[in-house]
Write a structure and sequence with these properties.
This protein is of the alpha+beta class. It contains five helices and six strands; from the N terminus they run ααβββαβαββα. It has one domain: Trna Endonuclease, Chain: A, domain 1, CATH 3.40.1350. Strand 5 and strand 6 form a beta hairpin.
C-alpha cells in the first residue's frame, strides 16, 4: 500500500473511515486487530469502557506497532469468526473502535451494532 493512500484514508473523518472499514472487511472477509505475545488484544478507552480497535487492512494496523505496542503483533481474523466473537464481546459490554487513525480519532460502536453493520454490508456484496 502506498504512502499517499494511507494519508488519504487517514484524512477521512471518523465516520467515513468506519464506512471504509465496513466495505473493505465485507469485500475481503478479513479484519485486523493488535495482540500481545499472549494473544490478548489491545484495548483503548477508559476504566468504564473497554474498547478494542480494529482495522480493515494489515498495513494500517502495523502503523500502530510503536512505543507501547512495539512488541505486539497484527492478528488477522476471518469476518465470520470475528462476527461470532462479537456475540461474546456484546455480553462483556466491550465496544469496538472502528478504524482509528494515528491520533486515535475513531467511532466507538457496540459489538451488536458492528455485527449488524457488517451483515448489512456483506449482503451488498452477494
Amino acid at each position: 500500500m502506498n504512502e499517499q493512500k494511507i494519508k488519504n484514508v487517514f484524512a477521512l473523518d471518523s465516520k467515513e473511515r468506519y464506512g471504509y472499514l465496513l466495505r473493505k472487511v465485507a469485500d475481503f472477509e478479513t479484519i485486523y486487530l493488535i495482540a500481545d505475545n499472549e494473544d490478548k488484544y489491545v484495548m483503548i478507552g477508559s476504566e468504564e469502557v473497554s474498547v478494542i480497535p480494529v482495522w480493515p487492512e494489515k498495513e494500517f494496523a502495523e502503523l500502530f506497532l510503536t512505543d507501547d505496542w512495539k512488541e505486539y503483533k497484527v492478528v488477522e481474523y476471518s469476518i465470520y469468526d470475528f462476527m461470532d466473537w462479537l456475540d461474546n464481546l456484546d455480553k462483556e459490554n466491550t465496544e469496538l473502535a472502528g478504524f482509528p487513525n494515528l491520533d486515535f480519532n475513531t467511532v466507538h460502536v457496540s459489538a451488536t451494532d458492528m455485527k449488524n453493520h457488517l451483515l448489512y454490508q456483506i449482503s451488498q456484496y452477494e
